[in-house]
Amino acid sequence: MPTDRISSIDQFRGFAILAMVLANFTGGMTVVPAWLKHAPDVGLTAIDLIAPFFIFAIGLTYGMSFRRRLDREPAAKTYGHFAVRYLAILGIGAIISAGETLIGENTSGVDWGVLQAIGMAGLLTLTVIRLPAPWRALIGLGLLAVYQVILDQFVLETVLRSSHGGLFGSLSWTAMLVLATALADLFHDPSKRKWFGAAGAAVLFTSLALALLVPVSKNRVSASYVLVSLGVSAVLFLVFHLFSERIRGGGRFLSAWGKNPLALYVLHYLLIGIVYLPNVPVLYAEAPPWLVLVECAALVGALSAAAYWMEKKKIILSL
Q1: What is the residue range of 232's domain?
Q2: How far is CA 74 from CA 63, 77, 79, 193, 258, in A?
Q3: CA nearest to 267, candidates 20, 91, 5
Q4: d(C-alpha 66, C-alpha 73), whole Å
């Protein structure tokens, strides 16, 4: 099992958090076209794939990190470490959601966001992470099937009123993370890595067939959405990895972002508040294109400076 950081994983994670920051910042701007925002329900935009990229990046290191810690610490301590990690992510998400509700940004009445979805998925995945990859794959697919049936029959309206599917939607995000850990085992095993790309492509083609029966919807966290996102994430990560192998030392910008995604995610909310909280439309909601570009550049520049500083100080707060 590799012991050094894999630069392509850092780069992919950095790409995911950079895309998430920009999507969050521009989501409330009228000048940004609909195809660069989340689909209202059924449908898929590029922005709808960003949270799955993040989930997939977590899955790439979840099992490897767990096994490494288990090799040097008792099982109870290892489980406790990961439980605390994902409870902390859930708690940070709750604080951010409460803040959004306080300033009137959250109109659904449900304090649930992407960090809560990640935290809950991480906690539930912890219960199966020691199982062999084939078992995890079966559990992930089974959980996805059960989720879809219950969603369609009983809780569709509740899920649609909730951000990221709400508490029930966490089951589908969990299925995505569990399946991601199974795919990750193919990548981390040198004898099986050659099958990683084929497995990702198979998931993607399966999702396209499933989409004929089950609508693709991020708001519903539908089974077809999970599988298409998982397939795209695997194929895109493979591109990152192949690029990283061929250009040694490249991608430092994304690597720096990828080493501290949680810190940068929290920090970006504080920076967004500078232009959002004054409630001056021309500064945010109705900002002209040139100002949007300037603000995005300033946001990315400030976060990049923070990322490079943490990298220099060897501060690693990865998920």
Answers
A1: 7-312
A2: 16, 5, 9, 30, 29
A3: 20
A4: 10
Q: Is the pLDDT of residue 3 over 50?
A: no
Cβ neighbours for 311, distance < 8 A, ≥ 6 positions apart: 255, 256, 259, 260
> Could you report the per-residue pLDDT of 134-185, keeping only the tens digit for each?
999 999 999 999 999 999 999 999 999 888 899 999 999 999 999 999 999 9
**φ and ψ of 90, to 5 deg:** -60, -40
Q: How is 195-251 classified by DSSP, letter by letter?
A: GHHHHHHHHHHHHHHHTTTS--BTTTT-HHHHHHHHHHHHHHHHHHHHHHHHSTT--
Residue 235 token pair: 């194929």
Q: Does residue 45 form part of some domain?
A: yes
In-domain check, residue 20: yes
Specify the pTM: 0.94
pLDDT of 108:
57
Contact between residue 41 and residue 220 where contact means Cβ atoms under 8 Å apart: yes
In a domain, 318, yes or no: no
Could you tell me which of 148, 169, 206, 184 has the C-alpha nearest to residue 56? Answer: 184
193 located within any domain: yes
Q: Amino acid letter at 172? A: S
Q: What is the pLDDT of residues 246-304, one digit of tens each?
A: 876 568 899 999 999 999 999 999 999 999 989 999 999 999 999 999 999 999 999 99
Number of structural domains (the chain) is 1
Inter-residue contact 81 to 72 (CB < 8 Å): no
